[in-house]
Amino acid sequence: MAPVPPKQLLPLLLFILVSFTCIWLFSLTASNRSARIQTQQLQIPTQTPGPNFTFIVKLLTFNRLSSLSRCLNSLSKANYDAGDAVHLHVYIDHFPLDSRNDSAELDGKLSVSRQIVDFVDGFDWRFGEKLVHYRTTNAGLQAQWLEAWWPSSDHEFAFVVEDDLEVSPLYYRFLKAVILNYYYNASNFSPSIYGASLQRPRFVPGKHGNKMQLDGENQIFLYELVGTWGQLLFPKPWKEFRLWYDTHKAKGMKPLLDGMVTTGWYKKMGERIWTPWFIKFIHSHGYFNIYTNFRKERALSVSHRDAGVNYGKTAGPDSNLLDENSLDFNLLELYPLNSLKWYDFCFREVLTNRIVRSSNDLGAVLHSVQEKNSVVLVSIYRTPENIVRNILCHFERLDIRNYVLIGPHSPFLLDLSRRGHPVIDASQFSDFSQLAKSINFQDSTVDLIKEILVKAYATKKSLELGYSTWLVDGSTLPIGGDSFSDSFSSAGDFYIGKTSRLIFLRSSSSTLKIWTDDFVYNAASLVDTLTKESVSHDYIIFYGVEKLLEKQNIKYNSIEDMQLALDIGTVRANQTSFDTKNIFIYWSSETELDVIKRQLAHLDLWVVDSDSSCTGVFCHRS
After folding, report:
1. Phi and psi based region of residue 256 (left: phi greater than 0; alpha: psi -120 to 50; beta: remaining)
2. Looking at 33-37, 60-64, 272-276, which range is the least confident one?
3. Overall average pLDDT of the 285-301 stretch
4. How are beta strands 374-379 and 468-473 bridged, if at all?
5. Biggest alpha carbon–alpha carbon distance for the chain
6. What is the pTM of this model?
């Protein structure tokens, strides 16, 4: 083969040189990009918590020196950010003073205590102040937790660990990121969140609750249950709990919740444990805890479950400790709060803050609640708050979940939505002007007209979506779980109870032809007429619907004639059961609250406690 001429060889050499240069630059860029990704995994968000931010580790210990040593060493090996002060407060409980102990046994306990005190005194903590509290008497686990912290400000955070825990080197930067994202970031803040647990979630305390099943997509979720194996506490909810605890303890109340495994713990162990108290508080206030969901049974805090108050003998680690070597994802990628899932004590998903303020919101909420193409609209206008809570607890016990509450704008209505109850804020319903059209009304009746319009319009929207619809007043209570089922043998699509304040509309083409925009408008137009006829506000929509149907010669069924509803005032003193026809119980709006409570309690239909929260947790498997 003939040799390549020199003039042709030069371009070839230049091409090879450029190619190698491009490959080298690409590999360098890829290497730098990989390095940036690895570095990013250990960076916290750019915002800072401010000069008043205080982070305190509260370490609770008793008589397990080896456990304490392992825990302290893991805390000291964590990655703390330069400039951050992380304080360590160690609470050493004293052994119980028992006159039955012989001298040798007593000397042995004293020796263990002094070894622990000496070890803690000599332990080098260079990240902040070290405080040691050595008790003179035995406090027990409950007091150790409850007396360990009273926040000095709304910027002080406590991370509580028991001595048989081992934490990941990554724990602090993760918790700091949580505080920045879900406490200081206004767009992600919720007063419902009381802290974050680093333990691997495994336990569902509600009896007959759902099996804990989490997908691998969301690394963060919210759960009502407190985690005692590495729990970060936010200051405001903890103060609130302590004051609540003081009140209930002083009045001799007990943290009992029907349907909870933890209630059995309390009955067995009593005041030796503190979690049943906190669980009862959380249940009454509707608060939630942040949890992690890492694959391969990993966690940022691992309990070795050493023998002690909770375990008769050592059980070993409950999870695998996540560290830099096993980190294969972005630990600090914290998602917006509105994208996270929330779960209750039954591990049933809670959909928070479903507030309807326009017709655009209404369809989605109705669709989210409907069951078997049925929706229940519950008016809570002029209904006392504890009556409303009793209705909701009763719904929970009966597993009635296809309801939407309708009421005026108020902190109470917003609190109900925060706790997961769907609501229609009728006061702020933006479509009011369009719905009202040319209704002549006085300023004194505008709120009542708005109430009737929104109730009638919500009913119309539900029917249009194909859902049979109940409209119920807050003074009416279903007796059984199937009370709202469409099991009527009578023909017809309209069922009205003027006295019991109930309407049932079967979804059909004929119903839609009647319950039109004009029907909604005409129902509201009757407000002035019915008011002059001395019809109480709670009854107006039910009287109005009846008048309109009669005017159009449309047949309807009377709920009173069918004897479906029982007046609470007719209940006999020795009556504990109902006629088979009765599926609802109701009372007059003039009935005194104490009478209602007494009668409902007599019939086992009053299920709220002194906190106006449910007396139990009622789980129904999804």
Report:
1. beta
2. 33-37
3. 95
4. parallel
5. 119
6. 0.87
In tens, the pLDDT along 552-563 reads 999 999 999 998
198-207, 211-220, 468-477: the lowest-pLDDT one: 211-220
| 60/120 Cα distance (integer angstroms) | 12
- Name 289's Cβ contacts closer than 8 Å, sequence gap at least 6: 193, 194, 195, 196, 197, 222, 223, 224, 225, 226, 227, 231
477 and 586 Cβ atoms separated by less than 8 Å: yes
In the predicted model, is pLDDT for residue 36 greater than 80?
Answer: no
Of 610, 607, 559, the closest CA to residue 586 belongs to: 559
Which amino acid appears at position 403 of this protein?
Y
Burial class (CB in 10 A: 0-12, 13-18, 19+), 162: buried
**Alpha carbon of 166 to those of 315, 320, 323, 326: distances in Å?**
15, 10, 12, 16
- Phi, psi angles (nearest 5°) of residue 230: 95, 75
| pLDDT of res. 573 | 73
Burial of 52 (0-12, 13-18, 19+ CB in 10 A): exposed
CA-to-CA distance for 451 and 279, rounded, in angstroms?
A: 37
Task: Name beta bridge partners: 565.
Answer: 584
